[in-house]
Each structure stands twice: as C-alpha cells, then as structure tokens.
Amino acid sequence: MALNKEQIAHRIARELQDGFYVNLGIGIPTLVANYIPQGVKVVLQSENGLLGMGPFPFEGEENPDLINAGKQTITTVPGSVFFDSAMSFGMIRAGKVDLTVLGAMEVADNGDIANWKIPGKMVKGMGGAMDLVAAAKNIIVAMQHTNPKGESKLLPKCSLPLTGVKCVRKIVSDLGVFDITPDGFRCIEYAPGVTIDEIKAKTAGRLTIADDVKEMVFNA
Amino acid sequence: MALNKEQIAHRIARELQDGFYVNLGIGIPTLVANYIPQGVKVVLQSENGLLGMGPFPFEGEENPDLINAGKQTITTVPGSVFFDSAMSFGMIRAGKVDLTVLGAMEVADNGDIANWKIPGKMVKGMGGAMDLVAAAKNIIVAMQHTNPKGESKLLPKCSLPLTGVKCVRKIVSDLGVFDITPDGFRCIEYAPGVTIDEIKAKTAGRLTIADDVKEMVFNA
Amino acid sequence: MNKVVANAEEAIKDIQSGATLMLGGFGLCGIPENCINALVKKGVDSLTCISNNAGVDDFGIGLLLQQKQVKKMVASYVGENAEFERQLLSGELEVELIPQGTLATRCMAAGYGMPAVYLLAGVGTEVAEGKETRNFNGKDYLLEYAFDSDFAIVKAWKGDTQGNLVFKETARNFNPMMAMAGKITIAEVEELVPAGELDPNQVHTPGIYVHRIFQGTNYEKRIEQRTTRKRS
Amino acid sequence: MNKVVANAEEAIKDIQSGATLMLGGFGLCGIPENCINALVKKGVDSLTCISNNAGVDDFGIGLLLQQKQVKKMVASYVGENAEFERQLLSGELEVELIPQGTLATRCMAAGYGMPAVYLLAGVGTEVAEGKETRNFNGKDYLLEYAFDSDFAIVKAWKGDTQGNLVFKETARNFNPMMAMAGKITIAEVEELVPAGELDPNQVHTPGIYVHRIFQGTNYEKRIEQRTTRKRS
Fold first, then answer.
1. In terms of pTM, does the model score above 0.90?
2. Cβ pair D99:B126 closer than 8 A
C-alpha cells in the first residue's frame, strides 16, 4: 500500500543525523519534525531568519513576530538564534545547512527539480526555493509519485519550468525511496505492499532497482 | 608663520557640519576631535568597528576590548554602536561616512594620494587607508607642505606608490588650505603670516590662487 | 543631527509618485504599518515596491495595491493577495520575481557598497535568462546587481534618537538589509528611546544608515497563518 | 551535537603543518589567545595565517613567528613586530598585504557562499596589479575572491554549547566574518553558557558556523597603545 503523507515524513526523518542543521519546506517536509528519531538532535532552520525552530505555540500564545518561512506562528527551542534574511541565505549558500527537505511537482532523473511555476496559472513566485535547491548540499524531495491523473512525476526531463538543476539527491515518494544516480532514479526501498512492477510502471524517467532493495518497515 | 599640528587640526574642524559621520585617521587627524565647533554634533567612526568614539579613558579605566583603529584605548559616547569590520568598511564603501580626514606623504594635483609605502623601507601595510580613500565621498588631507628636506609634497604626480587615485578633495597643510580642482591645487586660505609667494615656491604641482583667497583667522 | 520626526506623515512627506521604495518585512511580519498607511493617505502612485511579499488584500502592501498606487512589484512571493492577482492578470501591474536569498543579498550589496555579487540561485532556470553567468571552482553563478532605491522603509522593535535599531525575533527578516540600502532610510519603531539606552553591543542596524525615525502607533501585527497545538 | 571541547589543545588537535588558518582580532584586541598558545605548544609549522595583524613580538601571532611556524602571512598591517620584519627581510616569511576592508569582505564572502565580489579598494594602485577590473556605473572595481581557509579560530566574549557567539565592544572586529568563513571554525570564549542562556535576538554569530567551542583561561588581553587622559 502506498505511503500516506505522515509515512513519507516518517521515512525521511530516518535520514536525519545527530547534529544536522535541517531546512524543512512547506507541506509534507514540515511533518518530518514529528518523527525525529530518538537520540538524534537536529536544529531546524527557517529561512526567514531562525535557527532552532520549535513546535507550534499553544493556543493563546501565538506571537506575530515569530513565524516560520510558511508564515505560520511557531516557537523556539533553547539555543535558538534570530538573524536577517541575508545571513540566512548566506548560510544556506555556504553549505552550512546539512539537509533540505522540500516538495516538488516534478523531478528529472538527473536531479532537476520543478516546483514553482505552472505555465498558464498565476505565478506566485519562487520564494526561497531556488536559493535552497541551488545551494543545499543534500536535498531530499518529498512527493507523490504520480499526479492526480496518474501520470509519473519522476521524469526523464521536467516539463515545467525548472527551480534548480541537478540538485536533488533523494526522493521519498508514496511508493518508495529513490536515490538520484548517474543512471537515473535507483529504487532502494519500496513501500509495504507496493510491487517493483508498479514502481516501474509509474516511473517515466530512467530507473534501476538496487540489488539490495527492501521493503520499508515502520515500527512506530 | 606656518601652522602647527594643532592649528591644522583646528582649521580642518571647521569643515565639520552638524550630523556628519566622520572618520579621523592617525596623527594630526585625531586632533581634529578636540576642535569640533560649538553647536556641531558629529559622530566619529573607527573603522575597526565603532560609531560614537569618545575621548581617551581616564587613567585606570582603560578597557582592552575597546580600542580605535590606531589601537589606542578609547571610550564611547551615548548612542555608540559596535559592529564587525565587514559592516564597518561596508558603510564606508557605501558612502555613508560624510568626511574622512587622513595624513599623506604625497598628494598630486589631480587628487592622487600616496601614504602607505616607501620603496626600500619595510612595508607595514595599508591597513584601512586604501578602502577609505577609494570609497569616502569627501576626503581632507592633513599634512606638512614640504618634507624635512624642504621638498614639496604637493606634486604634479606622486613619486611614491599610490594609495588611491583622484580622491582627495581638500588639503590643509601648515601653509594653507587647498581645494583640488580640474586646474590642480587652488589655494583658498593661507596661514597667518605666510605669503602667497612662499606657497608658490613650495608647491610643485599646478597651483592657482583663489580670487577671494584670505588669511586664516584663529579666534580660539 | 535630528533624525526624529513626529510621525509617519512627516517621515514620508517627500516621497513622490514614481519613487522606488524598499519595504521591510516577511509576509505580514515586521512590516512598516504606519508608513504604509501614510502612503495610502498621501495617495502617491506609480510606485516601484521592492519587498519580499505584497501583503494581503486589506493589510500591508495590499492597501497600496487596492488604491492602485503600485506600478511595479519586485518580490519573491506574492501569493496571498487577490487584488494583486487581478491587477497582474489584467496587465495593470508589473511584477519582477526574484529568489528570496537573491533579493536579500541584492539589498545587502547596496548597503555594503558592492555594485554586484555572484550568486547561485536560479542558475539553469528562467531566472538566469539574460543574466551573466560565470563559473567559479566548477560551479556556475549569476551576476546579480545591487538594488538602487530612493527610499527604504523599515520597521524595528526599538530605536534610539540617533537611528540605531534593534529588531525582534523573525520580524528582523529583510529590515536590516533594506535599512542599509536606501538612499533615504525611514525607520518606524515600537519604542523610541534616547541615545545611550540601547546596549551598543546589541544594535542590529547602526544609526548611520537611518535618516529618519519615529515611534509608530497602533500596531496591528496581523497574523497570516495562525497555527497552534493543543495543550496535552 | 556536541561542540564543546575541553580546551585549546583539544580544539586544535587536528590542525596540521601546512594548514591555512584565519585568526580573529584587530591588533591584540579580540585575539584567540588560548589557541595561539596551543599552536605554539603543538609546534605545527608552515602555516598560512590570515589575520588583520601579526601580533607583537611576544604576544599573539608574534609567538608563532618567534617559533618560525608561519610560512605566509596574509594581513593588512604588520608594523608592530620586529621578528616579523626580520623574517620578512631575510626572505623566510612570505607576506601578502590586503586592504583591511577587502580582507574583511573576502572573509564575509566565504561565509555567505559568494565566490567573488567587486570592491573599490586599491583601484589604480599596485594592489590592482593582476586583478580583474570592471566598471559599474562609471566607477572601477576589483574582482576579489572569497578566502578558502581550513580553519578559522576566533575569540568571543560569551558562547553557548550550540556554538552561538556574542562579542564584546571592538573585540568583535574580524571575528564574526572569520567564524563564518572557516571550513572548521573553532571558538574560544571567556564565558561558556548552556544553550538557552543567550538572548536569541542578540547573538552575533549563529552556532551553525561554529564547530568547536571551549571556555578559555587566563586571558591577558594585552593593551597595545595605552592612551589616557587626566582627570580634570
């Protein structure tokens, strides 16, 4: 059975290592914070100018001066620090953020990503996405494997305008986990009950299956 | 009679306007702070990272963490602010400092300045001088008109390696006040008792005398 | 050296139609509410606004849009505003979208006297079109120019009579870089104190960058996405 | 995430001969005294040191010079050190002199992920020799490259266990930019506090830039030019 959003987030959380500085995008990536493995301490960066983001505030304790990059009210954790947006993107650009998790509309088998613009629709802007994908040293994409019409979003080439080129390292979709390799997508895990044949059928880009491919296990 | 160092500083201080941000170099320029006209409030910048420099501390109150660009112990005034050296030179480069006063070994009649290096002597470095002269919008040089051998330091062309090109706006020497114009040095004031002939004799660069040239007056 | 003005009206009195303005804030957080209201009241138009976002329909820069005072918007994300969308689609409004970090850094470049910098964002995308690309150490970068802005209007938490500013939490965002980048910088603050009251170690924007300052009133500080958790 | 190390010896234990080091401080103010002493004790040599100054004969980087541990000095002003002068004139020591603001900004560029920036200082002088010049808006600028440094060693006033740093007065100087610019950044602090004790609005260097931190001991904080006035 394909993963739900929480399970995608849960699986991505296993990529976190102790001491990582992590930037989580809007949507599924935000949920990753709920599944940080025990014993692993990470610091969450919000690119509007915060290291050390905490959970949402308790009702009645919302602070209008304290929001994340999704404009949501948040809290901080001990050791947090505020800075301006130039420094925030400076640390991203300098490779100080260890992991960036974000959503995508399309990913190509060379790591290109499209997630900001659909021709014919109102363009709202790229926000910080282009800066993040251009500079982060380790990018994991959280996404649905196919669009609502059932068409693959893992493509030989993106059809939508690009956000960044050759930058995605790994995808966790509802069907499995895929590394981006010189040979295209490599499936290293599949969702419980999902078959390799289904993955092959739903992946338009070049795809290889790892020799030691295995089924994902969720204990939690 | 030629001006002494205190008088040179005194004359330069008349160039200060209320609200100016001013960077004073080492030597005579430092003395300018002692002659700020009444009713004029200026903020002194020290390029190692301070706006709002005050006088030297009282004996026994020296603070090793509080020094100026000459590495001298100093104090601050109310409203002072500390920042890092990148921001300090950033504000200089962006033209936020209204006036820079510094010394020179030579000035050319096109505004070139040389004050950091003498071939054959140990080169100690330019420190912040090149940044200041390249970026300040208003540079006044405080200097002796001639060297110890009696040779002019106001030249058609600098003989020493340059610190900056076409940047000096005004010189206050022991003999007078000189604007840098397209026609070279223009004498606008002469020191009490100094003759125009003496100034002409001791100025090697192109020199004109302002129609309304006048003798400097010191009331203080 | 008197930088203190009475209020927003006085602070913006020489802003004319056609001016280019930087406006601090991220979303509705840390925006110069008083000055925006005064600009609406003054009715200047044909403004070019450089700001990360464009407010919502009835708050922030959205108020200027409603009065059709904005000719061009330079921003990174403008998705929260129906009137904006209408004007954009009808061709009344010009929009230039810039990656957020590039926007921030082009402000910073202006404040640091750097005419242009090389940045990564947008390489290989349509953002790179028409831009100079240069390879350093095996990576491509785009040449991005410092912004040139007549006015920068920022909002700080505390300020003193010399123009020194301190920002609060994530309301800092674009405000410090824009404060450095305006030819004329106007700061509105929640609390204006005499020079000497702020800790000189802890000022975010030195007063040398700020030309006018006033204590604002009636801050609404609207929350755009109120997200909370339940007490367990 | 444990950034705290016991002392300077542990902090610098993987610094090898031949390494490039940035060392914070201006003159003798805000220099990493403990780490410099530990480097002397460890005896690594052939170091390239990027620092605004080179200390005095018996303090600061001068101690490394005395032991002939420095191969190359990158600085803006080196005038306070007789041993330095001797080694320079004898050809034992290589020196690259860089305008102070350019030095600071090349550190900052590294910390902001900008490979190169255009700066004014030195245009038309021998500093410009061999450098690319480019005209923007009628003014010439030099292309200056970000520094590449194996280690940055900085001194802060306070720090916390996450590596967040606060500097004191003009001891800030080059320390924040260098902290951002090192591949590995080591911070020594006068007072190390638990995470959460520093005001998050008032941290100068976010801990993300700092890899190792320790509380230093026995700070001498030597004064280079003791200037005073008499009580009137």
1. yes
2. yes
